[in-house]
Amino acid sequence: MRIDLVDVTAGEGSDALPPTTVGFESGSVTLVATETAQRPTLLALIASGRMVPEHGSVTREPELSGDELRASVAVVDAPDISEPSSGLRLDGIVQEELMFADMHSSAKAVLETLETLGAREFARTPIEHVPATVRLHVLAELAAMRDSVEALVLTSPDRHGGDPLEWYPIAEGLAERGYAVLVIAGAASVALLDAALAEPEAPAAPKHVLPETPTQEVAEEVIEPLVLEEPERAEEPEFAEDPDVVEAPEVVEEEDTK
Q: Per CATH, is 2-83+148-209 categorized as 3.40.50.300?
């Protein structure tokens, strides 16, 4: 699947969200830099079909109805929309999400889920005290458990602190499993990731856009393939006489065992 947002805006005069163009598709991660507290949530709602932009367009291939689009895109940890209440414990959040995913939500199932996600030690911890990387990992995986979800919008994961180089692999892991992943983060986090991932031994840099300058084109780095030199061939010895011809051994046909 692929979702494209073209020059989408929000608010009168585009004050809430300036013209933004971005696309994300199955099997890849797209980074978009969006500043202020409100804009990431607005962009996430538009990208998931939960909000109609003031201007611009949102298209999805293959095309789906509005309800199907909303069901196929999970908005993860968006401020004021899908972020858990600060007083909730992690085990309570997991139980609720398992119910939404029509999965077993008993106390045992909750602990088993947290164990699988490597977060059992934080079961009784209020969500605001869970480390940023663990928080994003658990919330993203819970959203991905819903059968209809094909895309995830990770919304402002850097607002909880933590090193972007630590939480970005979570997005990569989801993309490797076939999900379309859009990460909405601050400009500083996007710049850090872009610089780090562009290093020779690092994974390919993610696609990203800068909504504040929508007409700016970002050139993709082209990496030339390594060309190996053909090894030198040893000179064939000269024979004064014709070499002896060795008869080919007789080939015994194998029996057909099929």
A: yes
